[in-house]
Structures are given as structure tokens and as C-alpha cells.
Design brief:
Blueprint lengths: L1 H8 L12 E3 L5 E3 H9 L7 E2 L6 E2 L6 E2 L1 H13 L3 H5 L15 E3 L4 E3 L1 H6 L29 E3 L4 E3 L1 H5 L8 E3 H109 L4 H6 L9 H5 L40 H4 L10 H16 L17 E3 L5 E4 L18 E8 L3 E9 L3 E8 L17 E7 L5 E6 L2 E8 L4 E7 L4 E6 L5 E7 L6 E8 L2 E4 L2
Antiparallel strand pairs: 1-2, 1-5, 3-4, 6-7, 8-9, 8-10, 11-12, 12-23, 13-22, 14-19, 14-23, 15-16, 15-22, 16-17, 17-18, 19-20, 20-21
Helix pairs in contact: 7-11
Keywords: Coiled coil, Immunity, Innate immunity, Metal-binding, Zinc, Zinc-finger
GO molecular function, one term: zinc ion binding
GO biological process, one term: innate immune response
Length: 557
């Protein structure tokens, strides 16, 4: 309201528009410069000038003083007002001194009106006001040049009164333009409502598809995470198997190297001794004195099998004059080649090459066995045979005859209180403990409100809060609770981690890799889903452990 009042104060009384380049007379009234110049021109002949606002008389043409303050205020106001001329391109017909945008045209007057002229325009019914239009002729009948006041429903055309009485629309069903306008708007509103309904359904479908898209993306991300985790585990196991096999190959290679080195060293000694004997014989063969040669004892058989097999047959050299002595202190016989050597020519050369020593061969069969067993551990093997130990079962747990199922019951089982038995919580351990290797086992959880499965050391407490699995540093478990939030959590050393996965299956797989220090849990849904992996340095044999309340847990297989 305040801005409207201010705008009225900024209107020129001549053009009824906001001041354009305002000027001030001596009487204090303000006008547009163009408007005032045009007004004073009309008074030039009379020789007397007056103010158009207060009729104050001036003997001389008054000087027009520019009002800078009013000019700035007018510009500020104009900058905040919508420019109707820019919207419609239509100017007021009666504002001849300055262009003023029109807001309504009158069909009867065939004139466009600005806000100020609209206020003083006739309010009679025949003066029909419409929206601004560049061509007012469009609102008149092209035949009779009269205002289009009626609507022919049969031809869907706007007509004048002459068209309905004597023109081509004579006898047609005709309505007043305003009535047809109201009906048309009502029909458009109904169509609009239908479109709104259709759009809402379309939006709902888009939201539904977007939600499905989001779930599919989450599912795909979960699958990527699951497959990535599985292949990381496979690669880790393969790396571990590779290191074990390579260590075994290195061990065998080192053992073979040591054995071969020892044999080679012994054969080198024997070769040197034989070379010494050969040089002595060559000296004898090169002598020309028969007496000296004949003084040498008979050589005997230098290739005697007994000498071939052991080092005791090889004599020592005194390192002096070339004489050799036998074991009895006499001269040692120098033997020649044995003619019977031909009997051993058919041998494969293995013992002959090693001088009769046993050299271990590379255990290719053992390596293949390790690879086969390791591969089976990675790519699949049978489940571990888990049997429950009744001697550890809480008195409110009923253990089946096959030692595979633990069922919670209100009725005490009247078992003797021993140091092995859990006294505080409904849990039971397995008979068997695992101190090496890779193993897995599956469980089914039925009608159990709260449950936990995992592994623990046999040294876990049997009484007090520390006996609850997960609430100590000797046990690791997966915990589930139906009905409250249907979510998993994992617990170790009283630290509980809530998992983002909701329970969607009643079957769980527990996988142990003792050497790698990993205990993993998987949900056996379709497809299988990795839940969590504990990593620790295990120091004792691990036993399977079940914790069940109001329901039962069954070990599968």
C-alpha cells in the first residue's frame, strides 16, 4: 500500500504517468519536461503563463529547473515496476506526450488504456475490456464490424449479434460469450484435473521405478562387494598355497643340494686319489729299467667293487717319494682295470654317477598332493563333522541324540554341575577343536528369537559374564535377533558391530582358516552373501559354539 501511495505521488498531472526527467516551477509543482514544454507552447500567444496544477500566473515563460532528487526517486520506482509495454508491446492511446504501457483495451472505444486512464474510463457494460492485444480488430466481427459478444456452440466460433440474428449462424445454438467462457473454463479445469491425476500416477510410477532402480543398484553393489570379497579370499588362499608349495620345493631343493654337494666332495677326493695312482703308473710305464719295474708289486684290481663303494679302499698318499703302503705297513698294491667291469655296463648310471650314495629326488608327487589338497580347500571340500559336547551344554539346552541340534527349553535337563558345563547362558561347545587347516560348517536357525553362532577356545569361562560368547577375548560370534530389527551383528571381546545386512535366511555358514587367522560368516541365501570376517592370531584350538534362546539350532550335514 505504501509503495502504491508513493507511486501516485510520482505521477505527472499532465500525462498521468511517472515523471520522466522531472522539472520544477517556481510555485513548487513538478512535471515531466516534455509535458511542461508542450503545455507552455500552448500559452505562447497569450503572453501569460500559468501552472497547470495550481493556476499560478507567471508574466514571463518560467524557467524549468531540473529536480534531481525526484528524478532519482522516479527512476528507482520505474526500475521496480513491471514494464507492461515489454510484455504486450501495446501503449496507452491517450498518453500522447510520453509512451505509457497499456493494461486493458476497450473494444467499444477501440482504445488501449493505461492504469491511470483505466481508472476514469466508463464502467458501462457496453465498454468491454479485454486483455492487451496488438490488433483490436480481432475482437470484432470481420463481416459486421461489431463486437464479438456471442459464441456459436455448433461451429465453435465467436460471433456478433448480427451473425446470430441474420448471418450464417442464424438458428444455431448460441451462448453469451461470458457463459461460454465459464463453461469452457470449467471443461478445461476438469481436463486439467484429469491431467493432474495422470501426472500424479506417472510421478508415482517414476518414483516406484526409481526406488526399484535404487534397490537394484544396492543389490548390484552388494553383489560386487560379495564377489570381490570371495575373490579376495580365493586370491589370499592361493597366495598362501603358493607360498607353502614354494617353501616345500625350496626345502627339497636345499636337501638335494646338500646331499649332492656332499657326494661331489667325496668323489672329488676319490678323483684326486685316482689321478695320483694314474700318474704313478704312467711313470712306471715310461721307465726303461726292467729291474725297477719288476720290483713293483702286482697292481691287482684297481676297480674292485669293494673299493668302488667305500672310501676305506682308497689308500692315502704319503706325499713324499711316491711309495705307497698297505694297511699292514707294507707296500700297497697298485691294481689295474678289472676285466669284469663289463658286467655292470647295463646299469642306468644313477648309482655309478653318485658313487653308490643315495640322493633324494624332487618329490613331485608330494608337491602335486599339496596342490590338490590346497586347491580342494579353496574351491570346495566337505563340511567339517561337528558334534556337540553334552558335557558343556547349559541345563536349559536339550541336545539331540545325533549331537547335531541344540534346543532351548524351560525344563531343566538335570545334568550334573561340572567344571566343563556352561552355567549362566544357553550355549554349548563342540567336541572337536581345530588347531590347523581350513574348515566350514553350516547351521539352521529355527523359531529362535535370539541366537548366536561362532567359535571359542576351550579355556573360555563357564561362569559369569565372561562366559557369554563374544563377551571375552576367547570367542567370536555372529549374533541375530528376530522381530526387533532383524539384523545381524558380530561380537568379540564385548565389542559389538551392527551389520547393515538384514536377516533374509535361516541358514548360516561358518568358515575357519586357522593359519590365516580368519573366521568368516556367510548367509546361505540365493546367492550366498558374505557377512563379516574376523581376523586374529589364534593361539589355541577353536571349538564351534552355539547360543540359542526360544528355538533351536541344527548343524547341517
Amino acid at each position: 500500500m505504501a509503495s502504491a501511495d508513493l507511486r501516485d505521488e510520482l505521477l505527472c498531472s499532465i500525462c498521468l504517468s511517472i515523471f520522466t526527467d522531472p522539472v520544477t516551477l517556481r510555485c513548487g509543482h513538478n512535471f515531466c519536461r516534455v509535458c511542461m514544454d508542450e503545455f507552455l507552447k500552448t500559452q505562447n500567444g497569450a503572453g501569460v503563463y500559468s501552472c497547470p496544477e495550481c493556476r499560478a500566473v507567471f508574466q514571463e515563460r518560467p524557467a524549468l529547473q531540473r529536480n534531481v532528487t525526484l528524478h532519482n526517486v522516479a527512476e528507482r520506482i520505474q526500475s521496480t515496476q513491471p514494464n507492461q509495454e515489454e510484455i504486450t508491446g501495446i501503449r496507452c492511446t491517450y498518453c500522447i506526450h510520453s509512451p505509457v504501457p497499456a493494461v486493458k483495451p476497450c473494444l467499444l472505444c477501440e482504445a488501449s488504456l493505461c492504469d491511470n486512464h483505466l481508472r476514469v474510463h466508463s464502467k458501462a457494460a457496453e465498454h468491454v475490456l479485454t486483455e492487451p492485444s496488438a490488433n483490436l480488430e480481432d475482437r470484432k466481427c470481420s463481416v459486421h464490424k461489431k463486437i464479438l459478444e456471442y459464441y456459436c456452440t455448433e461451429d465453435a466460433a465467436c460471433i456478433c449479434v448480427s451473425c446470430s440474428l441474420a448471418g450464417e449462424h442464424r438458428g444455431h445454438r448460441v451462448e453469451m460469450l461470458d457463459e461460454a467462457f465459464v463453461k469452457k473454463k470449467e471443461k478445461l479445469r476438469n481436463s486439467l484435473q484429469k491431467l493432474i491425476t495422470k501426472r500424479e500416477k506417472t510421478e508415482e510410477r517414476v518414483r516406484s521405478l526409481e526406488e526399484r532402480w535404487r534397490k537394484d543398484q544396492e543389490k548390484a553393489s552388494g553383489e560386487v562387494e560379495r564377489v570381490t570379497a570371495l575373490f579376495i579370499d580365493i586370491r589370499r588362499r592361493l597366495d598362501h598355497l603358493e607360498k607353502r608349495v614354494l617353501r616345500e620345493i625350496s626345502r627339497q631343493e636345499e636337501q638335494m643340494s646338500l646331499s649332492l654337494s656332499d657326494v661331489i666332495q667325496k668323489l672329488e677326493v676319490k678323483k684326486d686319489e685316482l689321478s695320483r695312482k694314474m700318474r704313478h703308473m704312467e711313470e712306471l710305464c715310461n721307465m726303461t729299467d726292467p729291474w725297477t719295474v719288476l720290483q713293483e708289486p702286482d697292481t691287482g684290481d684297481l676297480c674292485d667293487p669293494e673299493e668302488e663303494g667305500g672310501e676305506g679302499a682308497v689308500g692315502g698318499h704319503d706325499g713324499g717319494d711316491g711309495d705307497t703302503r698297505g694297511p699292514d705297513g707294507g707296500e700297497e698294491a697298485i691294481s689295474g682295470p678289472d676285466e669284469g667291469d663289463e658286467d655292470t655296463r647295463g646299469h642306468d648310471g644313477g648309482d655309478e654317477a653318485t658313487g653308490g650314495h643315495e640322493i633324494p629326488d624332487l618329490g613331485a608327487d608330494l608337491i602335486s598332493q599339496m596342490l590338490h589338497a590346497g586347491g580342494a580347500g579353496i574351491y570346495g571340500q566337505g563340511p567339517a563333522d561337528i558334534l556337540l559336547d553334552v558335557n558343556t551344554a547349559d541345563i536349559n539346552l536339550c541336545i539331540s541324540d545325533d549331537l547335531k541340534t541344540a534346543t532351548w527349553t524351560k525344563i531343566s535337563q538335570n545334568r550334573p554341575e561340572t567344571s566343563e558345563r556352561f552355567q549362566e547362558y544357553p550355549q554349548v561347545m563342540s567336541r572337536r577343536g581345530f588347531s590347523s587347516g581350513r574348515h566350514y560348517w553350516d547351521v539352521e536357525i529355527r523359531r529362535s528369537r535370539r541366537w548366536a553362532v561362532g567359535m571359542c577356545y576351550s579355556s573360555i569361562d563357564r561362569r559369569g559374564d565372561q562366559s557369554d560368547i563374544g563377551c571375552n577375548n576367547k570367542s567370536w560370534c555372529l549374533y541375530g535377533e528376530w522381530g526387533y530389527n532383524n539384523q545381524y551383528s558380530v561380537i568379540h571381546d564385548s565389542k559389538q558391530i551392527q551389520l547393515r545386512h538384514q536377516i533374509s535366511s535361516d541358514r548360516v555358514r561358518i568358515c575357519l582358516d586357522y593359519e590365516a587367522g580368519q573366521l568368516s560368516f556367510y548367509e546361505l541365501c540365493d546367492p550366498i552373501r558374505h557377512l563379516h570376517t574376523f581376523t586374529a592370531a589364534f593361539t589355541e584350538p577353536l571349538h564351534a559354539v552355539l547360543w540359542v534362546y526360544r528355538g533351536y539350532i541344527k548343524i547341517s550335514g
